[in-house]
Amino acid sequence: MLAILSRKVAVRRNVISKNKIPRFVARLFALAICPGVLVAQETETKKSDGPVADYSQAFAKLRALGLPDVSDTEYISSGRSGELFGYQLQIAGGYWVANKESADGSRAAFMPLRRPSSIITREVYSANLAQLKDEFGEDSPAYVEFNARQYGEFAVVEEVVPADLDADIKLVQDHLAKGEESGVDYLAANFLAFAAFVDSAGKQTEANQIAATVLSSVRDPEQALKQLTVKIGTLEMEAITERFHESMDYLKLSEEMTACAAKYEGAWIHSVGMLQAAEKINAYAASYPPIVPENLESLPEEGKAFIAMLPEFGKDEFNSVRGNSGEFWLLSNTGAGESESKGSLAGLLSLGPKAIPVLTSILNSESPLPIIDAEAGYGRSDPFSYRDEDLDPEDLDDELLQALASRYLPMTVSALARTILRPILPKDGDSFDEYGEEEEVDLDQLKQRATKLYESIKDLSGVPLAVYFLESDASTKSQSNAALQFLLEHGGENEIALIEKKLLDFDALSETAQQVGTYVRKREGAAKEFLEKYIIKAKEVFEQESKLDGGGSASAGQLESFFNQLRELVLARGVPEILEQLVSGEKQYQDVQAALSLGLAKLADAEARTLLLDAAVKVESPDTALRLVSIIGQLDQLRMRLASEPGAQVPVPDNEETPRTIQAHRNQWGAILDRDEPINVQLGDPFALRLNEVVGFQVEQLFGGGRGLTPDVYRNFRSYQGLFLQRAKERLDGKSEDELTPIPEVAGLTEEEGRKVIASLTSASTDPEAFGAVVTALTRDQMAYLSAQEVTEQGLIDALKNLAHRVVKDRVPDTVKVRIKPLGELVSRKDFSASMADDALVDRMVDVLIQDFEQTKQPLAIQIFRQPDFAGIGIGSAFPDEDAIGTLRQQLAWQLDLRGDAAAKDHVVVMVSGDSNRVNAAWPLTSDPPVEGAPEEIVEETEDDDRLEKELNYSFGGGRDHVVLQMQLKEGLRQAFTEGNQLGSQLTITFVTLPGIVPKSKQKEDSTAE
Known about the structure:
Number of helices: 47
Strand content: 5-15%
């Protein structure tokens, strides 16, 4: 069977018909599920485009493997439309819930390739909770357990909302019809599982059609089927191990694991490891090996209690270890001993160094714990990796087989001890890297290291213990960082010299910058002399970083801004003085942000709001005014941060005498809402936001409680700016929440009303003038409904495209029309809106920037902005300054691989930001000839993809990464410009020339050569 799955089937999209699935693929689908299934039969379907294979037996086998039978269920809205297929396809439903209720009123809920769960309505849940409270009391186990279940076994929903399965099936079919754009290669298992659910729900024809399309579209059908099999098997093993964590029954675990492995024999290589693990687990059930610690009598009572409870050591306790395994628990648990239970892991670790002898005493114990976690690692190196997943069982050597089996074995006492000890062990020779990761586990050596460490620190705790690790040359980097952080929080005057010494010991700006900020924030004026030394050292390191990679980890402007913020913290000015400097223009906001935040956290809420609003009214810069208003919504977070710092004095929050209402500062809010000024104008944005409209939205967040702020509102925020400004002014006039102009919502229309909207648009779609009038006349509720729909009627899509992509002439500045002549010619073309959807758009824009840069050697930014709600397109341009270019370079360096030698080359960078598109790509500008002969792995990919081969020729000599990113960017644009449900949303495309930066060392070499 495994041989069938191991063969590589060469599938060419250009030779396989999507109307008829070849018999071998249909047979493969059946065989991949289980041996012995008959060849799938081809049956006539209702569609006129030919027969489709019948996969009913394969679907039945999937249900036998573990996919739920949803024949007696209701199809409902999940509320998480992107969970099954990601951002590429959002369906209305996604959940099947059982028609029959359980005794507690919940209903079983199923989603393809997800663990089964349950849902319960708020009404039933509240009634049951009230009844349990009346009968047994709020402290009763029954009440507590039922109340806790909403966070585990079931979800509480306001109501069960039915969804249209037929409509979702059509969405899936239409999406799959897009071929490679559908992402079917990545989500094949999800689509096939959805098809199996559809079959179980009684729609066999549709299920067959979906499966047929998937198997004809993927590059490797065998891999898709294997992916599906592995996901089902993984879910089953997760359920088996979770039951074991509850029951701690080793015999039942062995039986269930054996049965599971038998089902997947030959189809999933992990079944081999599971069978071997089941044999050993069965031996545990017959004779549990006792835990025999060394030197038991000499151990502290907390240690003895911990060892006694190990046979029932829980999964939750282990998760707490794994969650903190990278932290330095010797310090994080300091001083917690008396409050912790002696018979627990937390109680043991609270002993600090005295926990080490307890852990070393059980290092040789191979007794099992009731914990299985394939991803945990248990403090060991795992030679089995994802690269081995395609091996045949006979190809597994003993080491790989043992590694695979160990993933399904219970954790041992020794493994637990190693997992806890490893983060605290110092470096010793070559067996530990700088982060303390151990390459090989030698228990005797580990015990010797742990014992040696214990002898050195057994009488230390708290600050002295942190000092020890900070001063020790054998400490790993993570230990030193943890010790430094501990001293920053708990150290006193005696530790200042050591702290400053360590803060000044760095080779990269990112190493201690955050901790320097913490130190200066805490010490304020007392850190003045230290700050001067730090700035000198940081500038030296910045110069070195610039020489190495041509860019460094920050731009010069960002570094100076960081220094300025630290200087302001040292000055320790009061909030009124800081705000006065902002209002006068003496200081810039980015330079005083840290000091302002710290000062505001120390003020009462009403005083902080008054100071911020007064300054926002007076300050000239609209951008600064917006930042000051924005802080009002962050005051609680600022106080929480201050409260987490030892010894901090935090003011009492608002009380009834100082209510948070807009009327408390009516005059200030009114003045700010009258400021109709553009903000955040950058990179040629042709539709700059307005200060008063954005503040109107913040008023909604502050005083409206977030009601009505749906994902659609945030996604199409610009469409709602005027509405929120209007609602803010209505609040100022004293209107109640019920009297405000309502926020539109999709649910504001009935389904019949929504269909009428689509029908009216469709009928007018052939007349551009009439169509534009219909769209303009739509109410906000109708527009919200349209924005949420997956429009599939091609005529309507074309009409919406023409409307959404018309160029708003007064949003095309003269610099575009005149200064940048090639672009001006492009904008004047009558077919400009149609060209928005094709590949040539990117090509032409890139060419424009190349030509301009060759002539001027000056960076240029062009921005195409599509307004939401079909309001048209604006085009802007700008000449970004050095700081803006530096910021962009820093943001894109790693993603686009613009580091090292690449940083010295000129690029055109294209950035796309939209509803569901976040795609960036770079075109290197070079006179080098195109690469002759693509790398072998690219050649393989291009055999069935002419477009990718064409992209290789357009890559200006760039490597594979650039080519792939360029393809992804164009795919994202195609979707944004052609898919009906995205056309009414905001989209920004930014083209920027990114000049190369020649490293200073290279500059010196060149000058010497001259």
